[in-house]
User: Which sequence fits this backbone?
């Protein structure tokens, strides 16, 4: 083995090693894992578990599924993320957004659709990871995200009005829910409403108490103050669990009272570990077998949208916590796809990173992704032992949990800086928001992205064009300078062409100079358009020059057979050339006047062009002419 | 009335006058119209008529309609264009492309769909004209157009194989036609094939004879030579009519022979002027009434695609003939919409400008759009008197006419310059071509445009980024210069951010300078991204500057609350600042070393940043800092 081979081998090994570390981040932290970290992770994991359980039950109901499906969705992601996850704070599981998007797909159908959607989301994410399609996520801008999350928060809060008021109605979408809630307002169950409102107030208060300053900032806290502040913090963090447990105990005790329990309860939650089975590739609905292809057709665009929205959310959380470090989006995509694919084998609905639980995880001082182990075990223990008690959870308390989670996702405060900074961006924001509410979240986000892409394409189609008359100071020679403010691609070429022609016609005795400084790329259509423009100027005997073209631009023009593309590398070269031209023109002009006393001697422009062609031949650069003091 | 009001009034009158002239181009040429022009227009109009009639019959058959519908479609456009048309050569009527696109819509349905499509195309074109959506046409590039027209030519030529071979089969699409023709090859009717091939050969020969040079180029032509050359030219121009008439006479004579006519004939062509009636807003199909909404659903995307393709074709022809003048695309759109809307009242199928007939018009020396009057009258006369004779036209001869018209539309010769100029453009070309053949022309063009738009968006998402280490000659100060090669919009921001951060991390002791010279626009998402990048650099105590930002860019950054956006108007200002910094750092560094002998004195970078903040306050520009020798 030669030295070269050895070094190649070493470099290959190095690459494989780095790839392995990137794809299995556990290898990075596991070797240094010790008891201290384990304790921190256990505390954080258990705290997250206290939030995860009520949220799981609530989001399953939000998705239109039986509550246990929320728990089925809540543990796989925790375990998978330990091995593949690259951001220690992230907790994967059911979220309000995924639940809402799932609900829109399984409405009037059955749970099999939710599980298949979970599986297909994973597959699409895997495909995206392999095809490097993470770039798709970049096409969802902040305005669209803001409009979308705000709208979904409003929709989710609205759907929870039913639970809060104790109404037993079914509805779909924002407008339908509002309409039905108003119509059934007289059926409000006052016990549920009182309980729900109390829960909301308690949750909002508990959310704030962790910020209470017990010690003046200039003094050191005493031991008691330290303990109290720790207790307040823990109460604040576990507020969801505390409220739900308290309400359940209340409901359990009232059940045995004379009037029975006055609240609408969650009802039976099926216990036990879910059956491990492949996702359903066909299903029975209304006594009819629906094959895979029809299920896929029914799910429609959500097969692509759900995984993209999931990745978007997950990467956003990853970025929020990875202060300073770059987020490996491909790895997150890959991990998320595994979570969904494996999840679908234990009847999970589509899952992604949860912002609220990741924040709890962070606040609880998690050290490594190992925290997920404890959250996952808690969920499994709950499935094994706690489900009989879950049935006593009042629905109003779960609604309160959801409402308090989503109202802080309505991002009204971003409107002001957006107005100050880039007003145009308010259009996709409000379009997305309104359409998500009025029609549906999927249509809303698609149209929002569409509007955003149109904004993006607009400068390609109608670039700014700056036209000015320039005068060379020394010689007094005038010319028209046209500067297109963008690259030259097919949608812009007709526009640029007609602008340059117009500039030329307005002063047909002056040469026209196109400044290519902002033209970073050209395509074939544009090259052909420029070619026909050059022909037009030649027919009119008006000189047309290009200055500052990039090498790539010259190459494209050259390829599209432009023998008459006359360019200069700098404005100095151009001015030098124009001065030379004027001198020559004078000579030829006087000679021609002598030779042809009755000729077209009143058209110096024509003389200039003839003269230019002459120079071309003299230059001897072949067909393609470059005027430059340094070349040829 | 004050002077100001008068001048306003005059300016308003001027504007209205100019608008009227633009919208009614007949006002421009009618006042100067005389006998000379009338004679020229009459000759040209009649010559065009000789081409229009056989083409109309052939294209109606191609669209799957009875032949008279071709004639119904061939006269309205001629009359409308006289008043509203802005390019004298253009002749509006049925074309091979419109016929093919109509066929794909009415296959298995009835003629009402074709007429409704004509009406709706007109309405969509009117909408496009009012909403200024002519820009949509700009999004169809040369590569897509080439792929599309070449594919349609191949498809049309293929469908004509049936007529040429005398096969009586029905088929749809390219692959289906090829398969069925091959399967029924043994049913070939040799008489038809011979006649068809003869017609093709004659048509191709006649096409060439107008180029025969009777006179050596250095001699003046004699009178006889002039007449002969004129006869040859007329024969060449009217070749379609000559071939069709000759074949019909042959068929008519053979009909009375013992074996009857050996050719498949066109059959009855219903004569007389079509009934004038509103387009059908519902129809009877298979004994079922189909309402308007269902017809529209059936027509699908063609309602948008057919009018756009029609405009594209028409504007392309207009540009080809309007040498030097700018084409008023809105006016052409408006005229075309009137042609289609009015046409639909006399049972027309969708129509647009015909390249071949416009070329004949041009070659025949047409002077004004009045030529259309004669073509239109000829078609109406034909409907009134000639239809009994049209039934003797052999189908093979019409197939030959179509084949000879479309084979020259296969643009293989564009591939070579495209390869030389911009290879990437071959992707949409071939994708469009293959998909049009394999799936259908509408899907083909949509995917072609989609690929093209992805190419267009790519630089917005993944711009070039140039990173280099710069050293200031005088002071030896080093810095990292990062130059993004595109505007800063949402799809690119994450990419640019991570590139700049990476550049910063690679030499974390040097300041990073972002050159904004190519950044012509910024949106809110990008501003927020830059903001978080600035925070990251501050956390790392690494200075980050921006140079050459445009005013618009600064405004957007300012709006998104960027107190720490530090920029310089030129590279000189930056270098001056860096030198000043170095001096100050030295002083502070030595002072700090004195004060804190055990402090973090080994991190000059941190000192620089602290120092920068200090300067900000000293500058007194408020929250938003601009370092410039001239400002503050």
Assistant:
């Amino acid at each position: 083995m030669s030295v070269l081979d050895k070094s190649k081998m070493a470099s290959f090994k190095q690459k494989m090693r780095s790839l392995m570390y990137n794809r299995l981040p556990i290898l990075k932290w596991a070797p240094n894992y010790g008891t201290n970290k384990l304790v921190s992770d256990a505390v954080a994991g258990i705290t997250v578990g206290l939030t995860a359980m009520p949220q799981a039950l609530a989001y399953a109901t939000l998705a239109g599924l039986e509550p246990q499906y929320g728990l089925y969705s809540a543990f796989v992601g925790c375990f998978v993320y330990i091995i593949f996850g690259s951001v220690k704070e992230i907790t994967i599981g059911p979220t309000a957004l995924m639940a809402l998007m799932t609900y829109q797909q399984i409405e009037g159908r059955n749970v099999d659709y939710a599980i298949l959607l979970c599986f297909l989301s994973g597959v699409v994410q895997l495909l995206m990871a392999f095809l490097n399609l993470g770039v798709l996520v970049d096409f969802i801008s902040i305005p669209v995200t803001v409009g979308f999350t705000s709208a979904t928060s409003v929709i989710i809060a609205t759907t929870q009005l039913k639970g809060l008021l104790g109404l037993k109605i079914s509805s779909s979408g924002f407008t339908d829910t509002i309409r039905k809630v108003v119509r059934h307002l007289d059926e409000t169950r006052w016990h549920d409403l009182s309980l729900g409102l109390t829960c909301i107030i308690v949750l909002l208060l508990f959310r704030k108490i962790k910020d209470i300053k017990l010690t003046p900032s200039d003094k050191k806290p005493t031991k008691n103050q330290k303990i109290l502040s720790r207790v307040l913090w823990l109460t604040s963090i576990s507020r969801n669990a505390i409220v739900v447990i308290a309400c359940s105990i209340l409901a359990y005790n009232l059940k045995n009272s004379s009037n029975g329990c006055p609240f609408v309860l969650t009802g039976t939650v099926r216990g036990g570990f879910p059956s491990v089975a492949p996702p359903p590739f066909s299903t029975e609905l209304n006594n009819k077998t629906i094959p895979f292809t029809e299920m896929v057709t029914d799910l429609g665009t959500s097969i692509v949208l759900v995984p993209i929205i999931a990745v978007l959310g997950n990467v956003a959380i990853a970025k929020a916590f990875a202060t300073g470090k770059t987020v490996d989006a491909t790895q997150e995509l890959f991990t998320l796809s595994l979570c969904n694919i494996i999840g679908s084998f234990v009847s999970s609905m589509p899952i992604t990173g949860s912002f609220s639980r990741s924040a709890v995880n962070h606040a609880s001082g998690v050290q490594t992704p190992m925290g997920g182990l404890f959250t996952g075990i808690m969920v499994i223990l709950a499935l094994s032992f706690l489900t009989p008690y879950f049935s006593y959870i009042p629905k109003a308390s779960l609604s309160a949990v959801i409402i308090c989670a989503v109202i802080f996702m309505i991002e009204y405060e971003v409107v002001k800086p957006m107005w100050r900074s880039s007003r145009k961006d308010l259009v996709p924001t409000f379009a997305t928001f309104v359409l998500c509410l009025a029609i549906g979240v999927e249509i809303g986000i698609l149209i929002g992205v569409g509007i955003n892409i149109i904004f993006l394409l607009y400068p390609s189609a109608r670039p700014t064009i700056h036209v000015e008359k320039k005068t060379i100071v020394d010689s007094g020679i005038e010319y028209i300078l046209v500067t297109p403010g963008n690259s030259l691609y097919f949608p812009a070429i007709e526009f640029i062409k007609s602008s340059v022609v117009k500039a030329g016609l307005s002063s047909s005795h002056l040469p026209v100079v196109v400044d290519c400084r902002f033209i970073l790329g050209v395509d074939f259509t544009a090259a052909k358009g420029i070619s026909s423009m050059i022909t037009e100027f030649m027919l009119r005997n008006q000189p047309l020059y290009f200055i500052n073209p990039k090498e790539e631009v010259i190459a494209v023009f050259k390829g599209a057979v432009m023998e008459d593309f006359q360019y200069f590398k700098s404005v100095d070269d151009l001015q030098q050339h124009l001065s030379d031209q004027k001198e020559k023109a004078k000579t030829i002009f006087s000679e021609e006047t002598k030779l042809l006393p009755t000729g077209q001697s009143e058209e110096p422009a024509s003389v200039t062009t003839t003269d230019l062609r002459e120079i071309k031949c003299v230059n001897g650069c072949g067909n393609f002419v470059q005027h430059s003091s340094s070349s040829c």
Q: What stands out?
A: Confidence is low (pLDDT under 50) at residues 593-632 of chain B. Chain B touches chain A through 59 residues (CB under 8 Å).
